[in-house]
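Annual report, structural modelling task.

Input specification for the zinc ion complex:
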Amino acid sequence: MTAHLLKAEIHCHIEGAAPPALAAAQAKKYGVDTSHILRNGAYVWSDFAEFLICYDAVAALFKTADDYALLTETYLTELADANAIYSEIIVSPDHGDRIGLGADAYLAGISDGIHAAREKTGIEARIIVTGERHFGPDRVIAAAEYAARAKNPLVTGFNMAGEERMGRVADYARAFDIARDAGLGLTIHAGEVCGAFSVSDALDLVKPSRIGHGVRAIEDPVLVARLADLGIVLEICPGSNIALNVFPDFDSHPLRRLKVAGVRVCLNSDDPPFFGTSLAHEYEIASKIMGFSDQEIDTMTRTALDAAFVDEDTRCRLLARFDAQAGDEAAKRA
Ligand SMILES: Nc1ncnc2[nH]cnc12
Ligand SMILES: [Zn+2]
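The model returned the following structure:
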């Protein structure tokens, strides 16, 4: 049982957090036919490419700042109910532009949702702007430029998500230079659909402090040692990896091997309802299926907080809250 553990995640895509019932309500509100993406209360896709198409179609059901505020508040409130104290939300200004809402209103809606959830539950959250790789290098650079000039204090990081098989990291490196120069924290999806080379490219060309997934680094022991030496944090999303068939089952998932090799890892939900999961469920998987002790899970949560893209005052507050409760739990176990 992990319900009692405090939790944190640093890798969840906002549109990927839309519960199917909310997506269905949005579709009804706007008169959109969703029979190709939504069936029997579940999203319909069968592989990574189809997942991305389904994701973009679900994103298009959220059309106003209020829609995004509702989505964000709904997701964060559910997280807080599961004892989460911190979340980083991955958002794509392109999705705001594509529905004609515009990136500013899109970000404003998400920020309103964060404030409302914090008011109600105390959960802390930050926004990571992402470029979508399958929209091409120019759009990813535009996303970085947008993040770099955003005056929104909740925007603290930059990421690249989307179709990892499109181009090489070098094609997108300039976007990360822009984000780095603006003082944003850097993370990048790599080593999820593509192999270890993708993680090496990310380390060489982006120099991030974290990597989204990175699990296929396990194919190269020298790279695993490099990740450990550099202290790079892997944002691990076990349920997503199994749903997307990156690994056939949890027994073959490399989370434990990476951790044993000294790589810093934490638990995340990625796109929870798309993958039949939630952050609470990821913690249960780590405990019940992967056999991690409460103490090992607490270490992963602490890693998420250590690696969070927040100012140091906020990090200290989060760590104090976490350590106080984790200490109480450890005392109970002793
Ligand atoms: N798991 C994932 N990989 C790459 N891009 C994504 N966008 C949303 N979820 C993603
Ligand atoms: Zn992701």
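The chain has one domain: 7-333.
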